[in-house]
Write a structure and sequence with these properties.
The complex is a heterodimer of chains A (326) and B (281). Chain A is mainly α and 326 residues long. Chain A is built from twelve helices and two strands. In chain A, strand 1 and strand 2 form a beta hairpin. The two termini of chain A are 29 Å apart. By secondary structure, chain B is mainly alpha-helical. Chain B folds into two domains: 45 residues; 229 residues, MetI-like fold (Orthogonal Bundle), CATH 1.10.3720.10. Helices cover 76% and strands 0% of the residues of chain B. In chain B, helix 1 crosses helix 11 and helix 3 packs parallel to helix 6.
Chain lengths: 326, 281
């Protein structure tokens, strides 16, 4: 500490006590400047909340808490409710996760435990490429390639074989919750895979060796020694994927069919919060209509905020547990 | 309890499950190949020089290109970068070099939350902040929306890159008696430049394909690029509009535009990853 006194303040990570004296004006100005830009990030976040609240205010004032439970969406009579959009958002994300989690965990296990060394990098690279494809292109593919395929063999088969379940009743449109869920699965698989691959890789080797030494097979080693060890990191990875799925807009808007109804059938067209905002915002007129759409965006913001904070805390916990554990 | 079954059946279960894990990875790669394959095949069949060099034609007329939308995408990305880079880089420098633990944790948290905000909400924000008061859709509002998406990504990757510069370099610079800001800009930043550029390029690739924040900020334009306070076209926006249109010629154009966008976005990704992975070895 004393050595640093001589001329400059100490390097990062050691101390931040104000050392500048006579000729260090430049340092003070520069560090204040970086501080201002850092605080700008916080300001953008706070500003976002404030501005959205102001613009949503006509709707918040008029509908109050009933906005969340009403199923009405009638621009002509200016009656707006969010329930079908919230339902659609949660349902499509749930379908997406149900498909994505097993595939992602399987891929992560394959990439970190099983694949021969030469395969790991190219495979990880390809999965990252899937994450890099713009959402609108996945939507385009979904609409013209996947949806017809979902409608004809898949929904017709499900309807005739499992049609006794309310989930698989109704005419097969192709566009609808099922297609939206599958598209969301495609979009979150790369994220969940990448995070859980890192999490699995961080499990110490001794954990596996001990299990193998007891005579366990490789699969038993994975399920009994590796996965339980990093459980909360894996949950964090899944929740991170959920946060992405809830807010995903373009691809879902293109394949969900944009109907505003509460239907238990996965075949039925629906809407998510994001798709509702994306498809109607430009046509909306009047403070109340626009305000209602912005309030929808606020609801989505609240949901994703909650989900992201939980995910962050869980990933952070595994990291700190790992940090103290070794 | 399964542990006490015969060793043979346990081996079989293990083998089966491991094969399933391999299949899971295979499914992901097949999906990728399907998406890219359809985009490339459908895109190339329509693509021509005219598509890149001609402006779009009005509804009903066959042909025309997306010159203005490609140009618009470059302008929007440039605009967003001009806004986001100084803010993101300076914030990253603050996080890595100057912040105390509490300030760093708070700003890092804000950056992570901002990065997790769905892009459509950022679009709504830009609409409420700029489009509504100015009573006009504009390239500027779209650029700001994209910049808000870019800032946290740039800040966090810059921070990570700066942290990788060994402390001995900081100590060596200080021992020579230069001031801290000159050390940061002249010694630390050059040491982290590969990592920072990698982060910036990946962020650029991401916002180049963003559509949701453009729908009610950029809007799209049938009259080419007119200025920052006027509506502007963008490639992803045009893909969205043409894909949902009932005209088969427009649908084909959507595929061609998707092809151009994929080449652009994946091209940046692949080049950046190849260069940065070579640098590490």
């Amino acid at each position: 500490m004393d050595k640093c006194r001589a001329g400059t303040s100490p390097p990062a990570g050691i101390s931040h006590k104000k050392a500048p004296s006579r000729s260090r004006l430049g340092d003070v100005v520069f560090s204040r400047l970086t501080l201002i830009f850092g605080l700008l990030i916080v300001a953008i976040l706070v500003g976002l909340l404030i501005v959205l609240n102001i613009d949503a205010w006509p709707a918040i004032q008029k509908f109050g808490i009933a906005f969340l439970t009403s199923i009405e969406w009638d621009p002509v009579n200016e009656e707006f409710g969010a329930l079908p959009a919230i339902y659609g958002t949660l349902l499509s994300s749930l379908i997406g996760l149900l498909i994505a989690v097993p595939i992602s965990l399987g891929s992560a296990i394959f990439l970190s435990e099983l694949a021969p060394e030469w395969m790991r990098k190219p495979c990880s690279f390809l999965i990252e490429m899937l994450a890099a494809i713009p959402s609108v292109i996945i939507g385009l593919w979904g609409l013209y390639v996947m949806v017809p395929f979902i409608r004809n063999p898949i929904e017709i088969w499900l309807g005739s074989n499992l049609g006794f379940l309310p989930l698989f009743q109704g005419p097969p449109f192709g566009v609808g919750f099922l297609s939206a869920g599958i598209i969301l699965a495609i979009m979150v698989i790369p994220i969940i895979t990448a995070v859980s691959r890192e999490v699995v890789r961080a499990v110490p080797l001794t954990q596996r060796e001990a299990m193998l030494a007891l005579g366990a097979t490789r699969w038993e080693t994975i399920t009994m020694a590796v996965l339980p060890y990093c459980r909360s990191g894996l949950v964090g990875a899944v929740i991170l994927g959920l946060g992405r799925a809830l807010g995903e807009t373009m691809a879902v808007t293109m394949v969900i069919g944009n109907a505003y109804a509460l239907s238990p059938s996965l075949f039925s067209p629906g809407a998510t919060i994001a798709s509702k905002v994306a498809s109607e915002f430009n046509e909306a007129s009047g403070d109340l209509y626009i305000g209602s759409l912005i309030e929808l965006a606020l609801v989505l913001f609240a949901i994703t905020l909650l989900v992201n904070i939980i995910a962050r805390l869980m990933v952070w916990r595994t990291v700190s547990v790992r940090g103290t554990g070794e | 309890m399964k542990m006490y079954d015969s060793y043979f059946s346990r081996r079989q279960i293990s083998r089966l499950m491991l094969i399933l894990c391999g299949c899971a990875a295979g499914i992901v790669i097949i999906v990728l190949v399907l998406i890219l394959g359809y985009t490339l095949v459908n895109g190339i069949s329509y693509l021509s020089l005219d598509f890149i060099t001609q402006p779009s034609k009005p509804v009903g007329e066959v042909g025309g290109g997306m010159r203005d939308d490609i140009y618009g995408t470059f302008i929007l990305v440039g605009l967003a970068s001009v806004i986001a880079l100084p803010i993101g880089l300076m914030a990253g420098i603050f996080l890595a070099e100057f912040a105390g633990p509490k300030a760093a944790a708070a700003i890092r948290f804000a950056a992570d939350i901002l990065a997790g905000v769905p892009s459509i909400i950022v679009g709504v924000f830009a609409y409420a902040l700029l489009v509504r008061p100015m009573h006009s859709y504009s390239a500027l509002s779209a650029g700001i929306a994209l910049a808000i998406i870019m800032i946290p990504v740039v800040a966090r990757t810059a921070e990570e890159a700066l942290r990788l510069v060994p402390n001995s370099q900081r100590e060596a610079a200080m021992a020579l008696g230069i001031s801290r800001w000159r050390m940061t800009l002249g010694v630390i930043m050059p040491g982290a430049v590969t990592g920072i550029i990698t982060g910036i390029m990946l962020a650029v690739a991401r916002i180049a394909g963003e559509t949701a924040p453009l729908i009610f900020t950029a809007l799209g334009s049938a009259f080419g690029v007119q200025g920052l306070s006027e509506p502007i076209g963008a490639l992803p926006l045009q893909i969205y509009r043409y894909a949902l249109s009932p005209y088969s010629d427009w649908q084909k154009q959507a595929w061609a535009a998707a092809f151009v966008l994929v080449i652009l976005v994946l091209g940046i990704n692949i080049v950046v990853r190849l260069v940065s992975s070579r640098k590490k070895i």
